[in-house]
## 1
Amino acid sequence: MHTDTNPRPKLAVWKFASCDGCQLTLLDCEDELLGIADKIDVSHFLEASSAVAPGPYDLSLVEGSVTTPQDAERIRHVRAVSRRLVTIGACATAGGVQALRNYADVAEFQAAVYARPDYVATLATSTPISAHVPVDFELRGCPIDRRQLVEVITAHLAGRTPDVPRHSVCFECKRRGTTCVTVALGTPCLGPVTHAGCGAICPSYGRGCYGCFGPSNSTNFPSFVPLLRRDGMDTLDVVRVLRTFNTAAEEFDAVSRAEDEQR
Amino acid sequence: MTDDDGAAVIDKDGMDALVAVLAARGRTVIGPTVRDGAIVLAEISGGAELPYGWGVELEAGTYRLAAREDGAAFAHSAGPQSWKTFLHPPRAREWSADRTADGGLVTTPDATPPPSYAFLGVRPCDLRAIAVQDRVLTGGRHADRGYRGRRAGAFLVAVECTEPGATCFCVSMGTGPAVGPGYDLALTEVLDADGHRFLVRAGSEEGEAVLAELPSRAADTATRTAARDRVAAAADRMGRSMPPVDLQGLMRETLNAERWDDVTARCLTCGNCTMVCPTCFCTTAEDITDLTGDHAERWRRWESCFDRDFTHLPGGPVRDSPRSRYRQWATHKLGTWYDQFGSSGCVGCGRCIVWCPVGIDITEEAHALNRERASGAGEGAG
């Protein structure tokens, strides 16, 4: 609890390999943004302002994955100047869609994309922040959910644990009153193995969940994958649906590799 | 059923009038209606929104709408929701707290007036489920005031079951297909050469008053007989059944059965079964603070014993393994519910079977446990 006699806690927002969408979620907080700015000293947020105040910072929000040798060093600095480090989004938490490189030859990609690949210094893999430094909390999603971000910040201000359930999307779908698209329509849906947080948006529009929050904390893929097949997915479809924003999340990665070997 | 029981017969226009009369009495009328590929429970503004001409084809893990040529309104079994969505809603505010100018704290219980519902189309299994939740949520020393308020104001129009689904087993749970006590009005839908009509009986004073406002005629013998026959025939067409044994004892004596490993291999621990179950009542507390820290709220939201964090204590989750979570759910539902609340927690509606994405069937599991016990395996306390 920070009172008026104490300085406002200092917030820093950092970008690694990412699309900036999760940082934009903070700017997209609209109604809450002025309140946040009132309670927190936004000390380092290049997406919003080029004015940078020196650390250390009370709360660092880290977006993006580590894909370069420089970033592998920079994240250590961020950790060193941050009291509490929270990763935001699928890139920072699982390596992001750019972790597809983990299954391929990066040199080949470079040669295909860049006229002078020798100008590019990059790592062979995209890895989450937690692979490099200790992380205090991981907020899931591609992008993160605005309400959950506000919850993480308000919980930090109040000195309490954020209320961010780790169960399946099905919980949210049922609470919302959405009819199950798998059971009623035969639509493949990753909801039963996917981490809640989005509010079960996709099924409410009649489509299946595509797992943008990554695996829940209680998955059973040996039972789940046959369900995807029953609803029309072949092995390549299964590999592809798991190889998106959270492709390098441990459970998704293990299943997609095992499936890929069957092709 | 005697001829002086006040039973009446209404036609489809009487059904329209029923919705109108209930609405005119200030009630929010909730009934079955077709939406998003299912017969859901939602607010309806007229009898025409009832699912006339729609039925359902059910199997474990599968639900499909199916058009019916007979035009029946209630020839469907349990859908994706139950009435607990309205009586015990997924999320509700319990209280709010505000910091005062002198640094004190004032808490205010939620004073949202309860809605006045009329539920149209409560199946006998669901009528029993409401009674089960009444016992759970208001039957003890710490009654749930919010539930009590919503429940006390609810007008229940039961509709007897004449078209059980393939996943129904109310007969073996003793909850249907004929209606039990607790309704304000009970209907039985009859379709034959004499027309599409509903036999109506009142079960309360308000039920009698509502019935008196409907265009109706005294129940004739043919309609009474047809209604009785249709309900009796439904009893013979249950798609599922529980093993005819003491289920409480079966659960108690099979805690170490190998079958629990078998079902755990299939269970996704996704929580769907508990969310659709009309008696599952578990909730968790959700504390909200605003950015200033001067305003806080406590909300309650549906939770499930399949959530790994549901039993989280300082040392970690008590029921960490999926096996322990499925077993907890099934043995509570069929067994320890008797110890706790004096009845079964299962009413045989079949929702958990239909809405389990991988089609785990609680009746099949009970039969398997029963066979394993009979074979002498899996004995002993867990």
Note: Chain B has two domains: 8-235, 247-374.
## 2
Amino acid sequence: MDRYLLIVSTVCFLAAVVHTIVELRAGLFRPMRFNFFAIGLGFIFQTAFLSVRGHALGRCPLTNLFEVFVFLAWSVALMYMLVGPPYRLSLMGAFTAPLVVLLQGFALVAPIDIRHPVKAPANPWLEFHASISIVAYGAFALACIAGVMYLIQERQLKTHQLHSIFYHLPPLTHLFATITRLLWWGFALYTLGIVSGFFTGHPLPRVQVVAAIGVWLLYATILQGRHLRWFAPRRVATLCIIGFSVALALLWGIEFTAEMSPLP
Amino acid sequence: MNLFCLGLSHHTADVATREQFTGSATTESILRQTGCAEALLLTTCNRVEVYAVSQKRVSTDEIARCLTRRIDIDPHDYAPPFYRYEAEKCVQHLFRVASGLDSMVVGESEIFGQSKKAYESARTSGAVGPYLHRLFQRAFRVAKQVRTHTDIARGAVSVGSVAIDLAQRIFGKLSECKVLVLGAGETSERTARALISRGVRDLRVANRSIERAGELAQAVGGRAVLFDEWATQCREIDILITATASETPLLTPGELAPMLRERLDRPLFIIDIAVPRDVDPGVNEMEGVYLYDIDSIRSVAEQSLALRRQQIAAAEAIIAEHVADFVDSISRGLNRPSQAAEHSPLGENPLRASEL
């Protein structure tokens, strides 16, 4: 039953993607209102899915890779809802929706929704650690999307080849300010996630600790480089894309809470 | 009732012909004496058009005679290339004109204001009745929809407006930007004025003649700086406009590199409108620098025009829907409000109809 909620949610995000493609092909790039509502609806179904799954499990639904991917997609949509309208980056929806479709589509298709045997009762610290870390990933994902938008806009300005999309993307300086804000949010949340991991009362798997610290160091370097002006905005945007790709790839190697707090 | 439009435009007549038929303040009342129940004269630099409603057909010659400024011209002998659109074609033509589709620069918005002004003038003089009132009100609505739902008015098509458009795409609000104008010629002045009109508050002018720099600075509300200081100013500014008569480039990558190190996270937008160019093209390869010379600005203007032309089909679809609805509402009688006009699904979402 809960998978149906996820399918409906994915369809909503897919509608935003299709709408954007249709408008781009017609040369009429007006995705803002439609995309915002489509993503909003998709977010509601995502939340419903996670809520149903969480009640069934009796804990935060982060017990296998399938749930991690869905939770990550939810975090991306959450960050979009939070960051989009205030910074007038509703066009970000046109870029956010494909990522969410990719994450949820993969989760639905791949055989990764495996139920683990029960080994330990639910641990609030562990759940907080896992969920806050994934929400931080959502912020990093959106920084990555803003980075893509920055590079598209920058490329057009440098080459003097301005396409229809140029007039619908935010100004370069606004995009860079948004990237910086998202990096700080993500970094703060991720730090909180890592610190809370030490309060779980269980020894964390070494591979998970090393990967988490690696991601933390990567984003710390990007922020430090930005703060000390080692990196120009274009490099920061590129690093946001690389950083999130690395962080996403590491999810494969991390077995989150499954081993430590399996399903009841 | 016959609804018709008659006119001359840049498509059909040169300026020498158009200026013979611009009409006058009394044209509308003269037109009414010829049998037009309602009449409206639209005159711009690119067109002169009469929109009218009459019980019986009024000939083109009669209208042309009302438009002549010289009494020695007989339009019958002169045979100027007037076009004439009746009924539905007239409605379509006005909607196209008001939306900027018939303009020399496709999508320009000036015609919208000119149409409104012509309508207000005719309404005040009592030359407009219920037919033209509804026709023009609908035309204004169509024009707004076309602008909102297509990219017909997107992008700038003149040197000054391209520069401003690009600056806004880099910095957003220009009120926070610091601008240095290098050279105090006519083009510099025009661009400086355009920037001031878009909210720039910190504008500096440097010129080899400090007096001329002072004059321009005073004229546009900026401040003059010494020409020798311009390189130092580059450390602070966001936008540099150069238009000097220098034979060799004033700014090269080697000179700019140390300045950029101090402003790594702030873009620098350079508009080089000088010929020969004041800025070495290699500067555009530098991190955070966006250099546009006169050719690249023209190229952007041409791209904008091409983009606008791509939108014509979508705009025509919106217009076609409105023409059909308007003609239908007129044929059903003026007293019954048009359903489509009040609650049209097209009005709410014209693109849906256009996409279909």
Note: The beta strands of chain B are 2-9, 36-43, 47-54, 83-86, 178-182, 202-207, 223-226, 239-242, 268-272, 289-293.
## 3
Amino acid sequence: MKTVTIDASGLHYTPLNQEIRQAVKNGAGEIIIQHVMGQRFIADGLAGNVTIRIEGVPGGDLGMFMNGPTCIVFGNCDHAPGNTMDAGRIVIHGSAGDAVAHSMRGGEIYVRDDIGYRGGIHMKQYLEKRPTLVVGGTTRAFLGEYMAGGLILVLGRTSTRPIRERGVGSGIHGGKIVIRGDLDERYLGVGARKLPLEKDDMAEIYPLIRNYAAFFDIDPEPFMDDSFIQVVPSSSRPFAGKYTWE
Amino acid sequence: MCGIIGVIDRSSHKMDGSGIKSALAMMDERGSGEGAGYVAYGAFPEFKDYYAIHVFFDNIHEIKDTVDRELSKWGEIVFDEEIPTYEQPNLRKVHTPWRYFFSPDPLLMPRSMTPEDDIVAHLVMKINTTIAGALVFSSGKNIALFKASGWPEEVADFYRIEDYDGYIWLGHNRYPTNTPGWWGGAHPFNLLNWSVVHNGEITSYGANRRYIESYGYKCTMYTDTEVVAYLFDLLARRHGLTPEMTVKALAPPFWDEIDCMPKKEEFINRAIRLAYGPALMNGPFAIIVARPDAIIGFTDRIKLRPLVTGELGDRLFISSEEAAIRVMEPDVTDITMPRAGEPIIGRIVA
């Protein structure tokens, strides 16, 4: 496999992305970007079978519209990694800012630690396209706001009640949010309800837990045996009567 | 959008302006080249006992005499000079920045508890509302403020901020949205010892402005951030609220959250909301406020703008982006994201 190394010191994101695209065009299977410091839009709209290893702290909108590649970040992410991503995978060895997986349409995001506000805002799904966001630590308020599809899994590595913030699933009308441990009812958003996660549903999250454990070299067993809850829309059309009468 | 950054050295060790310049320039994407600015606390040790009154003049020859006369009515101009600037290819010098070191005569405001501050605050409002072509944009002691229409690095080079040392620095990169970019509209905004940088909008500006103007402040800069400086001056200086309580008034918890608090906490939160309802700020914002002994960072109640903090030794950094802090201090530790409405305060300890 051909590996290309790019030194991003002092490089603006436009020439950086040009170098990435050129490397992919030349058949690189792995791209290592060193000394990343706040460059936005890395790997945006990028397609192909390539793994990009990002060393440093990338700027916002990493992997926006990305369609296929894998980005592995060795540092924290800023706002909205995986914004409207189509396919591929983002693995973050650290935490991420607000609006992680914003409007995500497909692919997977794994965050080792915590995420900010409005994680998974307006994630969606269609047919075989079903995006997944896995968070190892905790999240802030408005998780899964306006969520229309896909799956958010919060593992809460350091707490049995990982989310203590308002508006979980506020405006949710599709998809589900799975949380390890429990969630106080008062943190549920408008149109969201809490259900236990049944044994059958667990099958869906086991592979995600195993992936998470493998990516970050963590023992998956404590998660496997624990209990989970899910936050889903309160009905099939929770906001049917909001703007019109039927 | 806008980008903000602030740093305090809690032991009062000074930093020159080169670090914050590169940090703010890293966030160029957050601005539009129409406004940037910096403020340094501790920048005028030789004049530290005098109010450093900064003025943008449209025209020195016609207007400066009027300002000089107005100041002289209320005290003594100890020293004044044009703020040194250095030509930049893309920055048009539309105003002449000037600074006065001013000593007000406290006997001229006999009924005030803080006559000197009140004289200077009065002069700021008076000049800004009655002398066309002169704008006072900073008025604190030992505080140097630099702003203009341009990109962060251009404005920094225009004033050569690396020639100044401060134990607190704030920086702001503007992306004007609701009003045009102009020199007076660039941040930081300052009144007396308060300086403010702000990313976002105060959508409650109308209500806040009516409230603050009822206490004699006058909004003259065509932009919402101005009210934040005046609100801090009113609540924290004149009413004596702590920074924590001031932030509670401006970005309070929701009523349903207050209902769930332990009794004592519920009482104080309810009291603050009831007493300072018209000071509540709505809309998306991340703000850093500086005063001579502290910096205070906070966001709106539902966190619609980013704010990240980091620390290293005596230094506390607050910024829109982690990368900007790392540009200034590569070895920074304890990167955290404050909760919505939670004040992050760095205080001088020595």
Note: Chain A is about 15% helix and 25% strand.
## 4
Amino acid sequence: MKRLISGLSVLVALSMILVSCAPTEVEVIKTVEVEVPGETIIQTVEVPVEVPVEAPIVAYERSETFYIAGSAWGPLNDWNPFITWSKANSTGTNGLVYESLFQFNPMTGELTPFLAESGEWSSPTTYDLTLRQDLTWSDGEALTAEDVVFTFELGNQYPALWFSPIWDYLLSVTADGDYDVQFTFTENPVYQEFSNNLYNIFIVPKHLWEDRTEEDITAGVNENPIGSGAYLYDTHSEDRNVWVRNENWWGIDVFGLPSPKRIVDIRFASNNVALGAVIKGDLDLSNNFLPGIATLSEKGYVDTYYAKAPYMLAANTAVLFLNTTKPPMDDPAFRRALAFAINVDDIVNVAYANLVAASNPAGLLPTLSKYNDEDVIDRLGFTYDPAQTASILEGAGYTMGADGFYQAPDGSAIELEVTCPFGWTDWMEAINVIATSAQEAGINIKAVTPDYGAWNTALTDGTFDMTLNNWAGMSNTPWTLYNLLFRSPIQEIMGSGNFGRYDNQVMFDLVDDLARVPVDDEEGMKAAVSAIQELMLTDLPMIPLWYNGLWAQFSSAVWTNWPTEDSAAAALPCTWNGYWQMGGLQMLIDLELVPTE
Amino acid sequence: MRRYFSRKLLIYILTFFLAVTIDWLIPRFMPGDPVQNMLSRAMLRADAAEVMYGYYTKAFGLDVPIGQQYLNFWNALFHGDLGTSVYMFPTPVTKVLLRAVPYDIFLLIPSILLSWYAGNKFGAYAARSKWLDNTVSPLGYVLTATPYMWLGILLAWFFGIVLGKFPIAGAYSFNLVPHLSWMFIWDVLKHWFLPFASLFLVGFGGQAIGMRNMIIYELEADYSHYLEALGAPRSLVRKYAFRNAVLPQITGLALSLGVIVAGALVTEVVFSYPGIGYLLLAAIQNQDYFLIQGCFLFIIIGVLFANFVIDIVYLLIDPRTRTGMMGETA
């Protein structure tokens, strides 16, 4: 009993300490401008004012807080806008804290000026950019042309920054006054990449970054980030990141005030927990992949972008890469036969329960479909048709073996593996469908699921037979996809594209042609894309299968006016890294509080 | 006595050296390349990828010959440097551990200790009551045999969703800022309770069954019969049986305390509770050499330390060890 009492007295003492931390009033000196009557000058006088110190916020108001999940994969590591591969864990650093010159609206395909007020090509090798006036960093300094020049120059200085290759064709970036920036290029710059970078390079403040070392810039943690964005870093812990609205954001007058005062980005260790939280209305937006959403959306438990299938927007194309260095995938006839043997409808209906849509054979997302050459696709495209598989294979000299599988023309057996990382449940289902339907069509393919690391190494080293990949997401240009599919030159390690090592200089030249078409030349882009699609669908070095969704299920319990197919707004219900400047921020501005009765 | 300890110490040092070497070696035998994995998430142009690959291979010290890497590793280790996590780049491994492991300690120490204590008490008690043995022991079997994942989900569903008494995710409410107040402490405890209870239940079942079987075995041993034949009271026989039965249980306890740094992966997944288990899994999947090494280093230290403590405790609680040692030194 005595121990209990002494324990109690400690608790009592503790609570007394807690109570004594109550807010107090402090006197501070504030600078105010006073107009002196009868004179034209304005005098600045220092006036003492009493400012009540607010009690530290310990609990967020539900009506001021936006709860999201599905973007962070792990605890937050850094706030460095240049470490792009860790940004999945610190979603918000790029887009909410640091900002880009432009934003991109995937639904209309328009680049809209953001930090920039305008930008145009004044000649084929000069791009003139004008910044908005009154841009500020969150420490109060002005954001000027110098900061833009400084940020781009970093790429010139440090090859370890991801955007340094633009300096292959960029000659100089110069500031003219506080608001004008001029980019000068070599002949034939890579217009498509540059336009993409306009909304993917995040501008950093020169006055805070110019004295940093190379290591700090390329790999530093950048604690207490000072950006220009609509939100500020607030706090984080192992399973959440919290961002708080920047009440002095320059964009409030231009774009409007983002509705939530705070954003709490939660990392759930399992997607099911996230689903439970959305249904209860505790979580506002989940960007996790959840297989049963079709049913839940129909019954009204959650809301989705489309009210009907496929429910989700298409975010990227799942492509089956074929290793063209290995037989029989080195034979275009075999690749074509395989394309007819894959039952994509089963992937869509069974593996995904209608949450995705089948891809166009040429692979471009629906948002870029205006660039498709429908004639070429009609003539050379493919659909699920095992009879076609049989006739193509037999026409190319393949023979049916006693085991019910086709043999290569030289009589050797064909045994192949299709892979995806273990634990990616939707893809695991999908490769099962691929293997089963190919086997039914007479091609012996087995589904294999190695660990992510082993899968990734097989992918980049080119030791796989065939595997899924979807690394080209929503973009302003078809070049993003075709640059992934046909990246050149072929190297020992293909870290970011053309994993099947399709080696065709004609194709590489076509993609390079597309890259160098000015972005405002829509006809030129169409012509270049048409040539690429013609060769791609003739040779079929990889097979686009379906569109992975922009997984988004949301609750209208607290926040409403979500982006959906009916809303005309340029907003996307997405919090993933790279999407804040593609409609994510606009969603925050558009959101409205559900009125409480 | 001194010889006993110096010999033990030598064995521990040797084991530590070997275990840490294996710990260093095994991740490097895994298929895959951590820097390549890391950079492939960045989507770079081929030429940029090559430059960055070189840069980061060097930054992680993976560009030198493997023998040199091994020496550098020991050198860094003695300077207290566990390297930088690849998966959680650029966070140092020590920081990753310091942030995540407290959650595991907070969860695992109470559940291990309490389930050990309660399970052993209960098991010993059940062994001498036929009624209890027939009703509660089967329950213990069911508890230990239940797949933990399933039990966890069941608890979360019943207490979290059906009754709505407990939260189902996080270490504290997502609308709270950590601070010192009753509300916050209460909130933390509420979030802690279900993960704790699930671990406790499973541990309790196992300990109780183990103790019950052990006691029955000891009661059947010759010394028990001999004592009984001498006319010793039953309580005395039980006391002796308990002392013998608890020895292997103590070893088990020390070992489970030694591996706390590995976390409780399934608990973390079911209750979405933070901790090192989930990060360790991600580290393994991403060939994060440094984080894997760091975690296992502490597991090695934990297990060795636990063993060392057992060695000492055995001296105190097991007269046979004491006599053996005295005989040796005499």
Note: Chain B touches chain A through 68 residues (CB under 8 Å).
